[in-house]
């Protein structure tokens, strides 16, 4: 059984998309996913694959680390 360490990936996809004056559908079409994928990613309910993260970064001509940030969780029992 996998242990949930509470790690996550925060993203700035919404900010980049709004600055580019794009709809979720337009971004989805550009990077090859559904509008729903963009929606749940922006809400923080979906962690993209590395491939998708790189596609999004390349589309916005940004470093992947500027858009996606690893957030280390707190291990259970404070360990």
UniProtKB/TrEMBL annotation:
Residues 13-67 form the HTH cro/C1-type domain. It comes from the Bacteria. CDD domains: HTH_XRE. Coiled coil: none annotated. InterPro entries: Cro/C1-type_HTH (IPR001387), Lambda_DNA-bd_dom_sf (IPR010982). It holds the Pfam family HTH_3. Keywords: DNA-binding. The keyword Magnesium does not apply. PANTHER family: DNA-BIDING PHAGE PROTEIN, TRACRIPTIONAL REGULATORY PROTEIN-RELATED-RELATED. This is Helix-turn-helix domain-containing protein. It comes from Metabacillus mangrovi.
């Amino acid at each position: 059984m996998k242990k949930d360490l509470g790690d996550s990936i925060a993203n700035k996809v919404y900010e980049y998309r709004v600055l580019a004056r794009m709809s979720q559908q337009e971004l989805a079409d550009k990077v090859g996913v559904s509008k729903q994928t963009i929606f749940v990613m922006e809400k923080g309910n979906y962690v993209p694959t590395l491939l998708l993260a790189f596609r999004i970064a390349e589309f916005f001509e940004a470093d992947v680390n500027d858009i996606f940030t690893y957030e280390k969780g707190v291990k259970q029992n404070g360990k």
